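Quick question, first post here. What does this chain look like in 3D?
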Amino acid sequence: MRASDKAYQALLEDIVDGTLQPGTSLAEVEQSERLGVSRTPVREALSQLRKDGLIEQTRGRGLTVTDVSLDDIVELYELRQPLEQQAAKLAAQRGNTQIFTQLAAEFRNAERLIEGGDTGIKAYYNLNERLDRAIEDAIASPYLVSALKTLHLHLARIRRLSRRDPIRLKAAAIETLVIIEAIVDRNSELAASATAVHMQQSLRNALETARSRAVTERVA
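> Answer (accepted):
Ran it through. Tokens below.
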């Protein structure tokens, strides 16, 4: 892996998991020292993150991590729902049932993962990422996959807001299992409908969590 790719991945993970909070300045020199690479790959990584919309140029502060506002969340889900529904339909029509049968079995154990603390929750999110990859492979649609990948960069930050809400994580796991089982049964309409329900519940939770966080920050 190229040094710029490593720097990009490291910075991306820090933005997604909240190590680099919204508004954090990202100076080339500071980040190159922190990551242990030269300034050139860091510069390339920052350029890509800016294209992704995860950092922005701000007056007097240089490049900073972007925030995720309530409007951003709504707009992302307005785009996410139809794309995810179409992806689920295509996965049900084209997917390898053995792969999704295995994923369904693992999602049936999701509650145990979620109750396993930070390590278990991380494993649960990794399981979700494997499901995303399986659906992308199944749909065999480069344009749809490209659109989903761009969305997932931003959605990963929103998902992080639910990490401390095990009740919501468990509910989301059940909703996701319904989608996977519909894919296994090759029931494309049920897969799309279950995805719509999951998206609506996820949006409601994301907005409630974001509003609660905003109130807490104002009080602090």
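The chain is about 75% helix and 5% strand.
The mean pLDDT is 90.
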